[in-house]
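Researcher: I need the complex structure. Ligand is glyceraldehyde-3-phosphate. Inputs:
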Amino acid sequence: MQSSGRSAMKLMISVRDEQEAVAALAGGADIIDVKNPAEGSLGAGRPETIAAIVRAVQAAAPVSASIGDVPNLPGTVALAGLGAATCGVRLVKVGLLGTRTGAEAANLLDAVSGALRMANGTVGLVACAYADAALVGSLDPLELPEAAAPFAEGCLIDTAIKDGRTLFQCLPEATITRFIQQCHDRGLFCALAGSLQQADILRALALGADIVGVRTAACEGGQRSGSISTKLVERLKASLSSHLKSPCVPLL
Ligand SMILES: O=C[C@H](O)COP(=O)(O)O
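Model: Output:
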């Protein structure tokens, strides 16, 4: 695992099926993230869908899989993590919607990381808090890095409510900067997402994020329920590449 300053920021594109995975790869996505947008911000795909996407990607990029915006039920969520880990992914992402404190988050992440180790020692855990935590009653993102550090490879902030409000509209830049620093201080990579548009992605880059996660801005018509467009992914990647100063070093 490497954090910011040692690698170029990666573009992670969330896809719901093999066709979208192939389109995202063709546009230059660095990480293919399996997600079912119909089931929420970090909606889980079915195991057969995750496995089909892993096969379609053919190791051309790391694949991550979301396992849901989960309740505070460590055993149940650990089983979901175990399921995802058997599908050949590199990372499992868990959305901490039902945990309210750092202690609850740590307990849940402990359970999931144990399940991942049972399945395959190479599958890493990504813990996600929400920028609009105050609205949905979930964990304060600034409590996440400390809770996640013993169990996760990286942390993510996304938005829980997909109403078009971006990460930067939900959280002050100073808070996001602090979150990134907290991750890096603990050796975690930091990913940012939440209806990010091209300008937001460049802002995330300037702040030192390691990964940006995008779906809406990469979909036809800018609709999260639309299909991933190779051309839109290409545009996002080109704008990112033109702002990257250092050559690309593998993060994963
Ligand atoms: O992990 C990233 C999310 O899929 C972001 O989705 P979004 O750009 O639609 O907010």
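Model: Summary of the prediction. The radius of gyration is 16 Å.
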